[in-house]
Each structure stands twice: as C-alpha cells, then as structure tokens.
C-alpha cells in the first residue's frame, strides 16, 4: 500500500498526508517496527535527536531496499543547540546518524522563549537549507508570537509547524494562524497518547457509523482540518489501520463536534510552549 495523497508546502516541496512518529521507537526492535511500517506504505518518517531514534530510522530505510528519494525524513533541533554554529553542527550530526545526504524537513523542536535563542536557531536552519543539508525547514510547538518573531527577523516563513493537537486540544486559533501564513500544520500525539479521547461517546458513535475504529475517526478529523497527523504505532495492525483513513469522510458538523470536545486542561503533559523548558 502506497500513500499517494500529498500536501504541498509553501516552498514547493510535498509531504504525505500521514506520517509515522518514532518517539520511544529505538534500537534493533525499533528498526523492525519502522521497517514494517515502510513495507505497509509509510514514507514520512518523523524522528528527533532527542528521541534517540535517528539511527533506527536510517537503518530501516537502508534495509527496505526502497530508493532514498521515495522517503520524507524529518528530524528536529534540540534546545541545547539553538546557537547558530551549534545548530549547523548538530544538523550534520543528524545526517551522519541517519546515514543520509540530506533531510526532507528539519524543525526547531521547541522555541524555549525564556532562553530566547530561537531566532538564531531559525537563521541556522535557513543556512542549512542554503547549503543543501535540508530541503524544507519548519518549527515545532511555536505559537503565533514565536512565528511572528522569526518571520519578521528573517523574512522566511516556516513550511511546517508541528503542534500538540488532538480532540481535547484542537488548537483552532493556532491552526487558523498557520493556514493564514501558508504554514502546514502537523499534529504530534494526534490520538491523545492514551487519554480518554478514545472512549468519548461521540467518537465511538462515529466509529460505529462509518465502520471504522476510533483512531481512524480521529485521524480523519485531523486530515479534514488540513492537518498532517504524525502518529506512533508499533504493531502491524495499528500501522495498517492508521493508513485506512482516505476512503471515507466525516461531515462538516461531525468535524465541528469533535473539535468541541476541547478541554481547558486538554494538554497531555501541560507543555505550554511559552513556558516549557525542553532541558534543564
């Protein structure tokens, strides 16, 4: 099964409409899990230096026998490397760990506004793109004020903003901001990471109506909002089911009802990008 539906980014490059997250997928077992996903049709592989899964992603790509050009590989800049020269070196290090010549997408993992070096980090990503180390550059966990600051400072708008988004935290305002700026929204933990969202009566009822599972309903909700869900799955069954979201559609009212499940305390780990410290 190949995923053929793609989003076009503001820089002209493209990404599949669903990706495999590799948080806590590591080592030889991780290679096998990622390889299974590749065999099922996943081509967007999302990792991070902080996930310690870059080596597993690169090895799975090599073992797959599929040409490098068919993959869309994302990794991210850790907070301790926000200074310009450090950022460029860690991007090179990520390429060495992955065993790749270039990255399809590179993101600043967190803005860390209390440290306030994210503009310098963004300037390093622009330089990395100029050097051909990466094709598209973006950010993760950036709020509107952070986006405005880097765009004003550099004149360069991110291609992607990856944010925490799930039914209890739908981020309507931020998603709208991203769309207004021409930025593709990606969702991390799109299923809520084991929260009660999978037990919501509304979502259970929709799963029954469409003869889908609850995860598929939530992932379809993301896609219909123009969001690219990056979803972790380690079993072949879950990996396969997560791809089966392009053969049905929710109504506009159903999308609205799922978004209305929002909770004021909906964040999974209360990771507010304005306050969160990625490292101590």
Automatic annotation (TrEMBL):
Residues carrying the site annotation Lowers pKa of active site Tyr: 76
Positions annotated to bind substrate: 109
Active site per the UniProt annotation: 51
Keywords per UniProt: NADP, Oxidoreductase
Gene Ontology MF terms in the entry: oxidoreductase activity, acting on the CH-OH group of donors, NAD or NADP as acceptor
Signal sequence region: none
Residue ranges constituting the NADP-dependent oxidoreductase domain according to the UniProt record: 17-261
UniProt KW NAD keyword: no
Family: Belongs to the aldo/keto reductase family.
Protein name: Aldo/keto reductase
